[in-house]
Amino acid sequence: MVIFEKDRLIIKPIIKAAFWKIKKIPYNRIKKIEADGENVIFHMTGDKVIKAADPAIVAFYPEFGDMLRDNHIPFKMTFDDKGYESIETVREKAAFVKQTALDYANKLISEKLTDAYELKADIKERIIGTTLEFDLYKDGMSVNEAKLTDTIENIPVVDEMDIAYLNEWDPDQNRGTYYITEEAYDKDACERYVKTCILDELFNLLIK
Fold first, then answer.
1. Which bin fits 2, alpha (ψ -120 to 50), beta or left (φ > 0)?
2. Cβ distance 178 to 125 under 8 Å?
3. Contact assessment for residue 101 and residue 196, using Cβ atoms and an 8 Å cutoff
4. For residue range 136-189, what is the model confidence (pLDDT) as tens digits?
5. Which among 167, 172, 179 has a CA at the least distance from the CA of 35?
6. Parallel/antiparallel/unpaired status of strands 75-77 and 30-35
7. What is the pTM of this model?
8. CA 169/CA 72 separation, integer angstroms
9. Using CA atoms, how far apart are residues 117 and 109, in angstroms rounded to an integer?
10. What value, to the nearest 5°, has the Cα angle with vertex 50 and ends 173 and 21?
11. What backbone phi and psi angles, to 5 degrees, belong to 24?
12. pLDDT for 21-72, tens place per residue?
């Protein structure tokens, strides 16, 4: 369990009885943060190092990005030599994915579910990464039964598709560089994702 308080980060173990393993990390003592694929490594003042065996801290908590920005903390993924695209490139690719996904999906939805249905999508840009959130509408109304998952902010949606992940944060520039997923570069890969992760699920649910 991860809690982002006003001035510190608290990492609690899953087992409540292991209270002695709770990590309390003041933001103003963090010099930099690294992620090696297995651990999130906090380099603290006084050369102290705190390791948290929970990579999800970086990828699934929007507050992590806010913490980096608001406290001027450098961050780096150390296990991947990719991921140096700018936020401008991420935005360009996100727009491509949105258009590609909706063109492909709504053609098939119209054929199988009638024109009453329409898949829509919103681009969600966060410091930790950019996603595409899909929702299904019928006659202009959101179809609640089609909300098959929750976003990282616990909002029910049809699907949340990853577009880019934060690779490095430079507090001096107040900018990040990003790893962009295959679907954002490859039209066929994007359409395969839409079919497998969205349409197959929707058609199984709604076609009786």
1. beta
2. no
3. no
4. 999 999 999 999 999 999 999 999 999 999 999 999 999 999 999 999 999 999
5. 167
6. parallel
7. 0.92
8. 9
9. 7
10. 135
11. -115, 115
12. 789 999 999 999 999 989 999 999 999 999 998 888 999 999 999 999 999 9
Written as one letter, the residue type at 32 is K
**Helix and strand element counts for the chain (H, E):** 5, 14
Residue with tokens 């369990």: 1
Token pair, residue 164, equals: 């880019």
Nearest-angstrom CA–CA distance, 113 and 106: 10
DSSP H helices in 40-193: 56-59, 62-71, 87-113, 187-193
- CA quadruple 196, 199, 202, 205: dihedral positive or negative? negative
Residues counted in the chain: 208
Q: Which of 132, 159, 153 is nearest to 66 (CA)?
A: 153
Contact between 76 and 168 (Cβ < 8 Å):
yes
Helix (H) or strand (E) holding 130: strand 129-138
Side-chain half-sphere of 65: how many Cα atoms within 13 Å? Answer: 19
pLDDT digits (tens, 9 = 90+) for 69-97: 999 999 999 987 777 899 999 999 999 99
